[in-house]
Amino acid sequence: MNSAKTAKTATTPTTLKTPLHEVHLQLGASFTDFAGWSMPVRYSSELVEHKAVREAAGQFDLSHMGEIELSGPQAAQALDYALVGKLSAVKAGRARYTMMCEESGGVLDDLVVYRPEQDRFLVVANAGNATVVAQRLRERASGFDAHVDDRSEATALIAVQGPHSPAIVAAATGADLSGLKYYASMPARVGEHEVLLARTGYTGEDGFEVFADAGEAVSVWQSLAAAGEPHGLLPCGLACRDTLRLEAGMPLYGNELGTELTPMHAGLGRVVKFDKPGDFVGRAALEKAPEPDRVLVGLRGEGRRAPRHGYRVLHGERAVGEVTSGALSPTLGYPIAMAYVEGEFAEPGTELGADIRGRTQPVTVVAMPFYKRPTT
Asked: Most Cβ neighbours (<10 Å): which of 46, 188, 206, 326?
């Protein structure tokens, strides 16, 4: 990729545009402010877009995400110290889901880290946390022979998700995808443009994420869109992305994750690797942390009214938890939610209630994910 830095420019002191903003305008998108970015929330209907991802394919602009590169002989050791995962164990060409924690053990951000080359890593951060993640990585890597380069402004990120995504991406890149496993990446070309192609996503479907130079984003988007037209590919906004990730049981920072919560609260203690050599930020606090007083669970509701973020979860008349995310599932046809509840009420099958605008609606604790894509 080249180093064009014309992509992410401020339109007001508080609103940023991705390099694909004009494309979204031409496609008739409705916009919302998300983490300081003007982002397409939908193009037609979130239900139509949600269905397209589950049955065909959807195309997303994720250029608001942060991309921070670490390179050098000790880049792996720097990340082992900076993050809770064992990134030195990730093979070149693979990726891993991990987290950055504070000294207290609270989650600063959840991340996907790619290792395109032996001595080069790409850390992908949530939009609202990208600046903080880059700053903390610089601080935590200062004692290592590693260079930290915030590539967010120079990088566009486009996702193609859904059962038809392999055919679409193969047509657009000419790449043989048969050996590209889930959570793996490879260099590829879309037209004349060099990209990093990763088999990752946030929808519960098979899919790909394409990292491109920001100055080439429009051309890459249009090439993918043209390749997807025979396969039912639709542009998709943040609204359906949220219901897709909820059905797949994937946490959202600011809802299921935050600095007041450890990975263990969210049932993600497996990402914390205490067996790696040396210290890491948050190790002492996480090793001594007691059993969480509240845990993340899935809830299945009845009828058509879904419990939403901030609604109380009840056992009888007593509040025993709070909903973090909820919606009427477009795929399943019934209300679903994630919630933090007291540990004694976390067993699947437990019957509880949700306070939905003053009325208690029955909900049942269920295992997540709510939806799993069909296997062939």
From this structure: 326
